[in-house]
């Protein structure tokens, strides 16, 4: 009887141990798997599939991490798209005429004197004024939120430049010769940050996000509640530049 | 009163051909400048990524606004029943078409890719006020041409009234559209105001009439056709009235902006900036373009003088150009407010007032547009019956009494 009791006690212990082990395994798998899902890189869209509005690409920029004297993001953009230091073109243009897809802006509080440095580029508005005003539809927003210029349709009227609240657009003032295959540019047309659409469509991050040594630029899908950018935007404070215009920006900032 | 007799000008004098030659040279210079800008790219202009619209846009907007205003002389007769203006309707329509053609030529030739214009016109984005304007401008040509046909062709006479009314409504909408190009720009402190649209209508009335007066006076002086004192006085007074209307809108615009704290800095920049824009506004627009023409319009010593009326018109045109320059260039020179209330600096000239010096090429392109407009009129009045043989007071005013003046 006592043996029977002892056996059933051992069996119960075995069952309990197995149950605990299995539960731990399932919990572990769920945690790790979930983690893998949560931290997965943005899936590349197959080339034969049209862009849709299931995603909205955006950036979260932590200005608190952005060093005053660092312009790695700018340099990466120049190299990726072949402007500025990434190109031998635009020799005739004055500094005011040269294109700048992204720039470092220093913001100084007049009262306290506190300075913040941050990268400024196209803010990829959900309601982009540049798209509204473009007479030909060359200035356009993809369904995934990327705002860019179709340089084959642009007539160079520059109305979009007048309309952009962020001075994100540049007009090309002269002939260009050294262009990047993936980033065509042309005299007499307007251009701006396209969120590295060439890289995003391959499932990669924009060049600026990859280049930032402080990892201050986070790229991701704003519509995916499990993406890091969406989770951080949901749990941490962030700002839209000129949020008063209610353009619903794809680029959000922290630390300003 | 006998019906007005219209007659082509003879156009066989040396003066006529010299004028046409001069206009030809001006147009050639404008086209040459456009080719130079397109061939090299816009780096040869004073325009840049900070001041994206420059001198060509000042000329183009001025001419387009003036075009709709020039048609107003015809509307005075066809819509508002002022029969004394009826003999001027044909010239009014011709000048409206001519000014619009000149303005559009400048606008189109300044494009980065003018070669794509036709393609662009077939792919219009109807959210864009620019796209609407393309339709409004093209429609204006057609409607004014039809209106002119109803005036000049006996079979069309019975449609004159309705065509005139339609043309009047169309020109109102057209100028609303031109003003809205700026009114819809939420990003810029100097624009982003609904009042820009009616302001442009008010400006169009004075710009258009001023140019009309100059063209009319020059034609009659040149051809030796009679022009009555009453007609001059009528135009002087009307110009004064239009100048007051425009000035009131300008005052309302600036007072509203001064009241709003967020716009005070840009107002200080335009009105009290110790810069070219403040000078052009106060001296160019307010003093030369408004106050002096108003004095000429209403003070007796200047009355019924072709010289003074012409002076007033020249001043209104000069002041008008100054005003459009202040609106277009001054509005862009003032920096965008990325972080309102904070100081901003960058490699892209954020936070600083952008300098702008128009180049010779872009100025020549603008003047070329004026040349095109004038050439259309000069050729038009020689080919077709646009000008009455006489504008003597007794011939245009059924109630004219010789002792009135």
Outline the fold blueprint:
The complex is a heterodimer of chains A (256) and B (405).
Chain A: H1 2-38, E1 57-62, H2 72-81, E2 102-108, E3 115-121, H3 129-133, E4 139-141, E5 147-149, H4 159-163, E6 170-171, E7 190-191, H5 197-200, H6 207-211, E8 217-221, H7 228-235, E9 251-254
Parallel strand pairs in A: 1-9
Antiparallel strand pairs in A: 1-8, 2-3, 4-5, 6-7
Chain B: H1 14-40, H2 55-70, H3 72-78, H4 89-109, H5 117-121, H6 129-152, H7 160-183, H8 196-223, H9 229-259, H10 264-271, H11 276-298, H12 306-333, E1 343-346, H13 360-383, H14 393-396
CATH class type of the largest domain in chain A: Alpha Beta
Percent of residues in helices of chain B comes to 55-70%
What is the element string of chain A, with H for helices and E for strands? HEHEEHEEHEEHHEHE
Structural class of chain A: alpha+beta
**Proportion in β-strands of chain B:** under 5%
Describe the global form of chain A: globular
Number of domains of chain A: 2
CATH topology of the largest domain in chain A: Alpha-Beta Plaits
- Gyration radius from CA atoms of chain B, angstroms: 22 Å
Q: What features would you describe in this structure?
A:
- The complex is a heterodimer of chains A (256) and B (405).
- Helix content of chain A is 29%, strand content 15%.
- Chain A has 256 residues and is an alpha+beta fold.
- Chain A folds into 2 domains: 1-40; 57-254, Alpha-Beta Plaits.
- The radius of gyration of chain A is 25 Å and the shape is globular.
- Chain B is an all-alpha fold.
- Chain B has a domain at 14-238 and 359-396: Formate dehydrogenase/DMSO reductase fold, CATH 1.20.1630.
- Helices cover 67% and strands 1% of the residues of chain B.
- In chain B, helix 2 (55-70) packs antiparallel against helix 7 and helix 2 (55-70) crosses helix 12.
- Chain B is globular and about 70 Å long.
- The mean pLDDT of chain B is 93.
- Classes of the chains: A alpha+beta (256), B mainly alpha (405).
- At the A-B interface, strand 2, helix 3, helix 4 and strand 6 of A face helix 5, helix 6 and strand 1 of B.
